[in-house]
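Forwarding the complex inputs:
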Amino acid sequence: MSGCGAEKGLISIDEALQLIQTRPQVLATETLPLGQCLNRYLAEAVYSNVNLPNFSQSAVDGYALNTMLEHLQDARFDLKGEIKAGSVSDCPLEQGQAIRIFTGGKIPEGTTHVARQEIVIVESDANIRLAEHIKPEADIRFTGEEIQVGQQLADVGQKINSGALAALSMAGVQTIDVFSVPKVAVVVTGDEVAETPADLQAGKVFDANGPLLKAWFNDYGLDVEILHIADEAEQVRHCFEQLKQQYDVIITTGGVSVGDYDFVRPCAFETGFEQVFWKVKQKPGKPLFFAEYKPLNSEGHPCYLLGLPGNPAAVYVAMQIYGKTLLDALQSQDQPLEWFSAILTHELKSDARERFLRMHAYFEYGQLKLQSLAKQQSHMLSNLMQANCLVRIPANIKIEAGQLVSGLFIHN
Amino acid sequence: MSGCGAEKGLISIDEALQLIQTRPQVLATETLPLGQCLNRYLAEAVYSNVNLPNFSQSAVDGYALNTMLEHLQDARFDLKGEIKAGSVSDCPLEQGQAIRIFTGGKIPEGTTHVARQEIVIVESDANIRLAEHIKPEADIRFTGEEIQVGQQLADVGQKINSGALAALSMAGVQTIDVFSVPKVAVVVTGDEVAETPADLQAGKVFDANGPLLKAWFNDYGLDVEILHIADEAEQVRHCFEQLKQQYDVIITTGGVSVGDYDFVRPCAFETGFEQVFWKVKQKPGKPLFFAEYKPLNSEGHPCYLLGLPGNPAAVYVAMQIYGKTLLDALQSQDQPLEWFSAILTHELKSDARERFLRMHAYFEYGQLKLQSLAKQQSHMLSNLMQANCLVRIPANIKIEAGQLVSGLFIHN
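Prediction (whole assembly, two chains):
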């Protein structure tokens, strides 16, 4: 097989991840309306301008009461109107008085208890009686019991997922500072992409990498255009020259090996990129290439080129591992990947390179277990119908059934 | 506290899920270009029109050889040009001949071996020599070795995630049949929503439910408009009357309890909805309401109303559990939720209702462990900054540390 592990100059997966995490210059921040920040990363901590709740309120539909009695079963109260959620009563409750109140309604001054309606007997339009004793403060939500004015709501780096966005909304946060998202160009190289079924006769293949990257970025939250260019040095060079000015990231597929038509590296060098690394001791995706272009005037942002191999499984794996790490690093995330640990249910032969295998993960009594899938070669994708994770298998060691390995869930 | 578990007529979480999974009439299917189908569900199985690979090809950059020799170390070959990936050679290889070939290049007729370039010594423009012996067929990808013509690529119900989309693209699949996505209207009821900070003085609160639902649907892949309506029967009725004609699903928040301003149920009944269930023995979200409107002419699709409580934590939990189940059921998915099992690291007091608690899950030696978070009440959301899962805690039993419980990851 190609690419034995003994080849020199290859770096490890951990070294590659470390370089991709630490090398990029973090993007600028921007202040945006909260509603536009879904799945962004927070660039400034957020503190609350309000108490939550902002006023003491009823936790139930029922009655606010004012009483000094110790035993409330059968206690009677004069009923003094009602308070809807979203409205207020200006009159303080006096002893022996009750007022109808609904969940979220602001309790009036003088309230000692709230009785839920299920235990209240309405004797007339003007009188109620309690069927049970209740404790003071039982169904009251007190001002600031969740969050107090000035308290930190979220820290730098917080991902603004739908839950975080809702929590900030509830505290009245209108705008937040987030890291800009990278501007990304995707370049699929190669003469072998079939445009029509007839092209298959001429030694071409259907494109998997273009649709794969379009969909992957869509899931990440970015709409990217896919550029197709031929394996010709002039075209590749021209493309890099244009893109490096306008984009923070260029992702390429194909053309990064040592074949005579592998123009990505030489053209990157000719257009001012400097290599950060080339070749990772991994399977799939050994010829992974990472380079940086620093603009001559110090105002522009650098452009990072992640050169992926052409085999679609290598592209898929590299995006889940390195692509996500790069995009997140540009937004100041230094721990973008959440590795799980899990038990392999079967043995695996040793291989000279560390591997990412597509597997099926399932829970059994709280234990995450892993079953490998067939057809792992780098030109094969069909097992992605069954795969729900990528599993990292160390090099040069036979893995026994029952051994622990680490991996990443495929969420979408 | 409100809502004791002894209340009659409540159904269980499992019963509610079962009704939401099985009651909806599945939506129509549509045939779409594959690239538009990200995160859709397949409505027809897909079979391959091609072999994968579609022709026998080189797995490496190297040389295709034709030889009958048993021992190939130091064997010499006449070099006959080259084949790029995406091009073909019309001349069969004859014994003793070699041709330069690149990864993915179609191997010419007569090929017996492919030698990777690392073990080939180029002696002249016309001659090469092998530095090592190689086995026949070592670096050849054979026609159909992954997929054969007519073989099933994906089954009904398959989620078209980015990996599945890429795998189908590679097999030349241009269009697929998928279930239509539901048309969803979201209605936030209540007079208590503050429009400006000044409104807070008047007993109002900032809206969490609108931004939450907007973001949640965005993550699900749907762009929904959020309608705000007051707690007035006439408005609610008018709203349902309009929406039921145009939408497959109406999600409401608030107004489903038994308060005097809870107009969702009565207005649903007045506009032709039939109750499927009301009230689930759960915390948060007891007054959950599910109803169905069947249009009089049999051509239209039914409209399903999922009435969520007004408390934002109940809304959040209900969307992850019941909202997702409903949207997926309309697309013929009967197992939308992937429950994990995990070990609770601490004890939990008994509660009369089954609970969904927001927790932090982490892996330890392959074991998924769970740590509960503070501030679980239904009007509190701030712990969603730390939560990465929702955990199901059975009713009426004290849970001991080390006990297994089930839950769902929060992916975004």
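The CA atoms of residues 290 and 306 of chain B lie 5 Å apart.
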